[in-house]
Amino acid sequence: MKTLRLLCLRSLGLITCLLATTVSAQEPELTELQVHAPVTTPKVIFAPQTQAWLSTRPEVTAAIWRGAWPPLHMGFEQTQFEGVAADYLGVIQAATGVRLKVLRFSTRSEARQALLQGRVDMLALHEVSEGQAGAITQSRPYLLNNKVIARRIGETRQPSADLGGQRLAYVGDEATEELLKQQYPQATLVRYANHLNGLTSLIYDQSDAFWADAIVAEYLIRMLYNNDIYIAGDATTTSADINFAVSDRKPQLLAAINDTLNALPQNDMKRITSRWGLGDHFVADRTPLELNQEELAWIENHKKIKVLLAASYAPLSFYDQNNKLQGLSADLLAILAQRTGLEVEILRSDSVSDMINRLEANQADLIAALSIGDLRLKPSQYTRPYTVSPFVVITKRQSLVRDISELKGKRLAIPIGNPLTKWLQQQYPGVTLVPVETAAQGVELVSNGDVNASVHTQLGANYFIKHHFRGDLVISGMVGPNPARVGMVVANQDMPLKSIINKVLLEIPPEEFKTLSDRWRNHAAPAVASSWSTYKSSVYKVIGVALLFVLAFLIWNYYLQAQIMQRKKAESEREQLVEQLRVAKQIADEANESKSIFLASMSHEIRTPISALIGLIEMLRVRGGTPQQINDNLTVAHESAQSLLSLIGDILDLSKIEAGAMVLSPRPTRLSELFHSVHKLFEINARNKQLTFNLLIDVKDQHVIIDALMLNQIIANLISNAIKFTDHGFVQLSLRQLPDNLETNLARYVVEVRDSGIGLDEQQKKAIFEPFVQVASAPTSVRGTGLGLSICTRLTMLLSAQLSVDSEPGNGSCFRLEFEAERTVLADEQCHSQPLAQEGMRLTILVAEDHAANRLLLCQQLEYLGHRAVPCDDGETALAQWEAASPPFDLTITDCNMPRMDGYELTRRIRNLEQSHGKGMHPIFGLTANAQSHIIQDCLDAGMTQCLFKPIGIEILTEHIHAVTAQIERQVKAARSTGGELAKLRILNPDAYGPLVEKLINTNHQDAARLEQLMLDKELRKISNLAHKIKGGAQLADARDLIDACAQLESLVHMNDSDACKEQIKTVIRVMLTLEQQLLATL
Q: What span is annotated as the signal peptide, if there is one (predicted)?
């Protein structure tokens, strides 16, 4: 019996083991290959044996495994394989003509084992560091990669290089764990199932560092945690470039893959990576840097270069709390090392003087960042500039300086050797200049009250104020005739290094340069304090409009009642009268019910903010209060006014739609830009409620013809509701393209707005699309007017689209919008938004407004945007200011209705003066509160450029002022496209062109006479020097004939050929006379 029991137990254990083996060794799942990147199939010429092998293969099997590896394998759908690796597989499939079959295994080890056993032909995801173990060979890498360590921004604990005593999060298997134990034996390893969880563990202090691929870390940080997590440095791991793994029994397949990757243009490889949000630095650069023999020899003799970096030159170069070098200059040095193979040794310095002294003492080869024009260095030592920033003046917030002349008799700190030093001494001798070693030292002196102001670049000033002196210091304004141009500086004996650096800088693509600059540029702007004078006129206007709106509805109600009475009196026959009375009663009841519902809603919605406004204004008038109380009261008053304005806007939109006045205005549109814009608009609202706000876009046809404004209004309404009724969790906006009939040229799309909010029951889902219907279960604090979804429904009908909702109480909601749009192709200028106004450009603007509050508000808005506003209270004063202005005003903004002289007459007078003086017409904007079409036409007839309607916001004002700065920008671009500096000056500053030409002609006369005299005296050395001087003037005028003639004369002098020199001097003088005639013809 005992033996029988033992046999049963053994049999049961064997069955259990077999079942476990069966479960663990699941069959791989067939996965659909999804290719997204629009890459042209490369033309590959395969070897004969490779082509023959491909011809006999109907398909090739590639293995992947479960678990996302973004962006190589996104893992959105279990049945689909999409990402960077999938796009490269798509290129190989198209190039070889062989169908690729993708099988998904449970784990990486199972996929690798299947390759070894010959069940699959290749692995779609493989790292170079895994090696060519067993029967596995590797293709060339298609992505550059390495292992990095990510950390949480703001971490106060001091990290150690070996991560001793720290929690290291990672994603991987037992082999990964063993590798990390060898590399970081003192760290506590914490394994996570996927990369997103591992990275998120840093946010919630569940780990101290995260070990991952640079590709994965950079992608997830950019998508989700750009302000929370940063890459602290490289891990102690060899290269982890990404490639394909192929069975050694398939050498022809490996050759086909390598041939396809080699034939794929680098721009297409960059297009694939950028499609998934990766930078160009992940693409292997196959184009060698073009260097001449001298430069190659210099690199061969200088394997390591010593580079001086200022420790506090933020954001160009600085050391963070972990003593790690950061900044734009550090990034550029890394690129220099990568492209040239030079090893860079960083020498830390604390001042500009120290760097220059060490460079001149041959203790270093290069200074990484210095303003071009430093008085202590030769111009030939500077490389081309890699960033430009205006010089600005930093002061205390309560001691603003609008012009340097206000600092007369006061102290201004300026770094030693700054290019502005000589200019300030000449233009403002009454200002006491205080030399400092670094710009950071000058900022500290301002903060301590030791000086009144300090000179800094705008780039550095923004960084220091934001991170160290927020609330204390501000940028008062721009200073100097030219901006700061920052470049690198080489030692006198290292001129080939300058040429090498210039070539590397020129090779960096503009978009990559922009990415590098934006990474360190400070975009934060100082907040403008609110005041009663800022919002008083808006509050009064909103109250007045609301009262007029109520009065209009009362008049309309009276009109309806009068119509009913007239119908009752008009009927003479009894039966007809009874029927008419019944119909009239029904109409009256419906109208009365609609009126009651509407007035009940409007009474509450309008009375609530008006009561708050009246009460707060009365408290401010009677009691006043502390500055904090006044600020709080004004904030509430502003919110109440905005609520009223939003309510009236919704009602007007609804009325406009019902009246049939709203029509479609289709135009070419890029859907991704539209959705990114909406996402960014509501990102702050979601962040304020601590909600996750995601954007997903999966479309093939980006460019369509549609009414973008109407589509934007629908999506904005849906997102606003989703954020409003969601207290925790997420809100997600997605756009997908549906299968469609390609013959019709119409693409079908679906937009979904999901949230984890309060949800809706069946009754609410049917009612919410009606006007004035609100969710009954919503908290009182988040209720609105109930008009948003009603407007969305009507706009959807205009677009011939369908709007639906799927929701359950407590489980959130999903609003779904399906629409069709005609495909189109956008030109480059349509695909991109208009560039912003030239950075640092400050316009001088004449403001004519008789209303004091409006005039103050407009001037403050213009000054906030960085422009200079000259206010006037009527047209006559404005005309006098315009005539006396020197230089003339860049822009005039005038109210249309003013006493003494209105805006129309002012515009006509200015246009007459411009015509009589032969000047071009400068832009004039008209302001009016009467938004009628004939007003716009009156403004244009008077000669105005634009007609703007009150109240005007910062965004609208910025958009229209951009049109003015764009004209200046076009002049600058025209000047850049012109060959010589004289020609550029003729475009940018015609007044200065004539005197400079006359001076150049006079100088040439003197030099010609001196040349003849020196030839008589046979002073050949002096002739060479004078020829070099004449050549410099010729370069200014881009006179190639004179430049060549002078160069030939210099060459003859060096050959000591007196007779030839004498003849060449005659040639030089003859060419100088020709140049003189050409210059005189341009005056």
A: 1-25
Nearest partner of 353 among 418, 433, 442, 446, judged by Cα: 418
What does R_g of the chain's alpha carbons equal in angstroms?
37
Mapping DSSP to helix (H, G, I), strand (E, B) and coil, where does residue 323 land?
Answer: coil
- pLDDT given for residue 790 in this prediction: 73
List residues bridging with 947 in a β-sheet.
926
State the pTM of this model: 0.39
Q: If we measure between CA atoms, which residue out of 240, 179, 244, 181 comes closest to residue 214?
A: 240
Q: What is the mean pLDDT of residues 468-489?
A: 86
Residue closest to 273 by CA, chosen among 3, 70, 525: 70
- Residue 107 φ then ψ, to 5°: -135, 165
Tokens linked to 1055:
């050959």
Peptide bond preceding 899 in cis form (omega within 30 of 0) = no
What's the pLDDT score for residue 114? 92
C-beta neighbour count of 1033 within 10 angstroms: 21
| Lowest mean per-residue pLDDT among 157-161, 309-313, 821-825 | 157-161
Torsion sign (Cα): 789, 791, 794, 799? negative
pLDDT of residue 532: 36
Q: Other CB atoms closer than 10 Å to residue 837's CB: what's the count?
A: 20
| Span between the terminal Cα atoms of the chain, in Å | 123
Cα 1051 to Cα 106: distance, rounded to the nearest angstrom: 77
Distance CA 482, CA 988 (A): 14
DSSP string, 481-546: SS-EEEEEEE-TT-HHHHHHHHHHHHHS-HHHHHHHHHHH-----PPPPP-HHHHHHHHHHHHHHH
Residue 973 CB neighbour total at 10 angstroms: 11
Contacts of 291 (CB under 8 A, 6+ apart): 299, 500, 503
What totals of helices (H) and strands (E) does the chain contain, helices first?
35, 37
Say if residue 887 is preceded by a cis peptide, omega within 30 of 0.
yes
Contact 92, 53 (CB under 8 A): no
Distances (CA, A) of 436 to 427, 439, 445, 451, 961: 20, 7, 9, 11, 38
> CA-CA distances (angstroms) from residue 355 to 30, 359, 416, 419, 485?
63, 6, 12, 17, 18
> Token pair of 151, please?
């950390």
User: Alpha carbon 269 to chain centroid distance?
Assistant: 23
Render the burial of 1061-1071: b for 16+ CB within 10 Å, e for the rest.
beebbebbbeb
As given in the structure block, the two tokens for residue 16 are 């259990």
Residue 804 bridge partners (DSSP): 816
Distance of CA 608 to the CA centre of its chain: 40
Q: What average pLDDT does the chain have?
A: 79
> Is the separation of the CB atoms in 861 and 954 below 8 Å?
yes
Distance (Å, whole) CA 366 – CA 491: 6
Burial (Cβ within 10 Å: 0-12, 13-18, ≥19) of residue 145: buried
Q: How far apart are CA 908 and CA 894, in angstroms?
A: 12
How far is it, in rounded angstroms, from Cα 886 to Cα 884? 6
The larger pLDDT score, comparing residue 538 to residue 136, is at: 136
CA distance 1083 to 1078: 9
> HSE-up of 517 (CA within 13 Å, CB side)?
13
- Alpha-carbon distances of 830 from 169, 668, 704, rounded to whole Å: 45, 8, 12
Q: What angle do CA 346, 349, 350 make, to 5 degrees?
A: 150
pLDDT tens digits for range 991-1045: 556 777 788 888 888 888 888 888 888 888 888 888 888 887 777 777 888 888 8
Q: For residues 167 and 174, is the Cβ–Cβ distance under 8 A?
A: no
246 pLDDT higher than 80: yes
Residue 379: Cβ within 10 Å count: 8
The pLDDT confidence band at residue 494, using thresholds 50, 70 and 90, is: confident
- SS3 state of residue 140: coil
CA separation for the pair 198, 187 (Å, rounded): 16
Q: How many residues does the chain have?
A: 1083
